Amino acid sequence: MLKKIALVLTLVVSIGVLSACGPKSIEEVEGQEYECSQFTALCPSGWINSPVKELNNDAVLSLNHLRFYKVEAEEGQELGSKLYSNAYVDIAHYPVDSKIYESRDIYQNVEDVEIEINGKKWKGYTGELAGYKNGLIWIEGSGEWQVSMCLSDEDGDVEFEDYDFQAILASLKKK
Question: From the CB of residue 89, how many other CB atoms can be counted at a distance below 10 Å?
Fold first, then answer.
């Protein structure tokens, strides 16, 4: 009987410790703010910033993109191709009312998405491509902010309900 009580107490303490880990709201998400020429965004702890190059000039950093990968890296660790097998969020800022270039037809199992963060309604879709769940969202009624993402990888998934993902969107600020 004493062993059962000890086991139950250990289990209760373990659950309490695990539930204390991680943020419980957007406001509790910690990280580092990054910027490009047009805006800033929070890159949460456990994610890394990866510079985005201009499509037509690989030597020039993009003026309107930031990309964050959900991968933990130790200082000095070479990430190389590991980055490209992890979930990521790619944020782009365009002039207000820009056209959204949807490419739904390349995905399987397409689902519409709506999420509200800090009073802003985001809409878009998710779908599967090459075994990975991808998505594209934008603020409803505007093409100003467009966020493309890979929501699944070999290490796990990113969900729209994840506070770190929501904190990225909530942190977007134009310069």
Answer: 25
pLDDT digits (tens, 9 = 90+) for 66-81: 999 888 665 555 666 5
Pick from 99, 86, 148: which is nearest to 122 by CA? 148
Give per-residue pLDDT as tens, 149-172.
999 876 668 899 999 999 999 999
With helix as H, strand as E and coil as C, how does the chain read?
CHHHHHHHHHHHHHHHHHHHCCCCCHHHCCEEEEECCCEEEEEECCCEECCCEECCEEEEECCCEEEEECCCCCCCCCCHHHHHHCCEEEEEECCCCCCCCCCHHHCEEEEEEEEEECCEEEEEEEEEECCEEEEEEEECCCCCEEEEEECEECCEECCCCCHHHHHHHHHCEEC
- Domains of the chain listed by start with CATH number: 30-74+81-174 (3.40.1000)
What's the chain's average pLDDT?
82
User: Is the full-model pTM beyond 0.85?
Assistant: no
